[in-house]
Every structure is written in structure tokens, then in C-alpha cells.
Write a structure and sequence with these properties.
By secondary structure, the chain is an alpha/beta fold. Among the domains are: 1-81, no CATH class; 134-233, 3-Layer(aba) Sandwich (Rossmann fold). The protein has eleven helices and nine strands. The strands form two sheets. A seven-stranded mixed sheet has the order 3-4-9-8-5-6-7, with helices on both faces. α3 runs parallel beside α4 (108-119) and α10 crosses α11 (247-255). The relative contact order is 0.12.
Length: 264
């Protein structure tokens, strides 16, 4: 496991504060000081978490005869530069990307982090809720809800989630339907049959949207089912930006207390 901490260079702030920022030595010094403080806090947090969970940090794992590591290890990686570019580069050589969400005051850097992870890496992204509630602190991912609409993104999300689904005790296949919209029972049964081929048992559930958006209805139903995680397809850039960062849905996602596994 690699824990990635990125320190933006002063030039990364140009788009936010204007070109004059790079001409002020005072501002540059302030940015560098903040970067250093954040780095030290990040190192301390990662070290504390690794110690609590008995995970070796920044040490070479023991290699046994078959060439596989015999224990989990963590590596703290600090890079400086463009956030989006670094996440895209590092994400492409990862199996899954875990990003914290639920920041009370979203900013450009947070937006860039999620957008780059979702659309520039071709990897599944696990968005973890903010805070350390008992549910998230002892997360086991045994009860999973999977949003399904038959589309390409949903199919990719299903495939990428298989390692989680195979270990789950309960799996609900959620399909959102608007008023008067017919259900494709044959297609939904096909997904359930596919999952059985992987020894995964799923229960199909139709979710009535009502006056809510599909994302709101699915997330609400997943929470009612006490799901540990909701698996969803991440759709086109503008649509996802609207889902995560726009209006009421953004507020809903910030307050959600379950992880989201998204694939694009």
C-alpha cells in the first residue's frame, strides 16, 4: 500500500489567486511553510495509523520462495508538483485509489484530486467518508449495495468490485426507476446469474426515484439497507461533476456515512 502526499508548488496557486502570487517572496514563503506543516502532519497521521494496525511502514517486506510478500506493508510517498498530473501518473500503477471525501469546504485541489482519480487513471476509486465514526473505523465491507443500470460504467464498476463482492455476506443489486418506467427484469436476472458464476448471491431491489435524482434515491436506499459500501458507475465528466459537486447532491454526498466505490 502506498500513501501519497502531494505538496503543490507555488505555481499551482496561480489559477486561484492570480499570476501575481509567484512574484511575491512573502506569499511563496507562506505556501512553502504551509506545505511543510501539512507534510509533517501527514507523516505523523500515517505513522500513527500504521502503528495502531501493526502495519510495517517504509520497510521492505519479506519475500518468500514464491516471490510474494507474506505481510501487508505501507509506504509513505511524498511528491511535489501538479496534483492532477501526479495522481494520474501514480494512480495508473495502482490497483485501487482511496480518497477521503466530505470536506466541509470543497476547494479546487479537492476537486482536482477526485476528477483526476476517476477520469485519468482507469482504476476504481474508493471515496471514504470524513470522520472516524464507529462504523467507518471498524469498516469490514460485508454488506454491499451495487447500483445497476445496464450501462458500460455500471458494468465496469461491477467487474472492478468483484474482489469486494466475493468477500461480502450480503449483496443488493439496486436499480433505480422513475415513475412509469418499466423494469427490465430479464436484464437484471442476467446480472444476478453472472454473479452466481462467481459464487456471489445477490438480491435484486427496484428503487423508486420519486422526486429524487437517481443518485439520491440509490444512496438513500443503500443507507436504509445498512450497506457498508455503495458500488456505482462514474459517468461522463460533466455528469459526475454535477453529481459530486453540484447543489443538493453535493450536500448529500458530503453527509453520507458510507463509502462509495466508483469506476469510470
Amino acid at each position: 500500500m502506498r500513501v501519497l502526499h502531494i505538496s503543490p508548488t507555488p505555481s499551482n496557486y496561480v489559477g486561484i489567486y492570480g499570476e501575481g502570487v509567484i512574484e511575491s517572496s512573502y506569499v511563496i514563503a507562506a505556501i512553502e511553510k504551509e506545505n511543510k506543516e501539512r507534510l509533517e502532519r501527514a507523516k505523523g497521521h500515517v505513522s500513527s495509523c500504521a502503528t495502531q494496525r501493526n502495519v510495517p511502514l517504509d520497510v521492505k517486506s519479506t519475500i518468500i520462495n514464491d516471490g510474494k510478500s507474506n505481510s501487508a506493508t505501507a509506504e509513505f510517498v511524498h511528491l511535489t508538483g501538479d496534483v492532477s498530473g501526479i495522481i494520474a501518473q501514480q494512480g495508473r500503477i495502482s490497483d485501487i485509489i482511496v480518497v477521503g471525501r466530505g470536506v466541509s469546504e470543497p476547494n479546487a485541489a479537492y476537486d482536482s484530486t477526485i476528477m483526476a482519480a476517476l477520469f485519468e487513471t482507469a482504476r476504481p476509486v474508493l471515496l471514504m467518508p470524513e470522520g472516524t465514526s464507529g462504523k467507518t473505523a471498524k469498516w469490514q465491507c460485508k454488506n454491499i449495495s451495487l447500483a445497476w443500470d445496464g450501462g458500460l460504467e455500471a458494468a465496469r464498476a461491477l467487474y472492478n468490485a468483484l474482489p469486494f463482492l466475493e468477500r461480502a455476506d450480503k449483496l443488493q443489486l439496486l436499480t433505480a426507476r422513475g415513475e412509469g418506467e418499466a423494469s427490465d427484469l430479464e436484464a437484471e436476472e442476467g446480472v444476478i446469474k453472472y454473479l452466481r458464476c462467481h459464487n456471489i448471491h445477490a438480491v435484486g431491489i427496484i428503487v423508486a426515484e420519486g422526486s429524487r435524482s437517481p443518485a439520491e434515491a440509490l444512496l438513500a436506499r443503500a443507507k436504509e439497507l445498512e450497506s457498508d459500501m455503495l458500488v456505482m458507475g462514474a459517468y461522463g465528466h460533466s455528469r459526475l461533476r454535477e453529481m459530486i459537486l453540484g447543489g443538493l447532491t453535493n450536500d448529500l454526498l458530503e453527509k453520507a456515512d458510507i463509502p462509495l466505490l466508483l469506476s469510470h
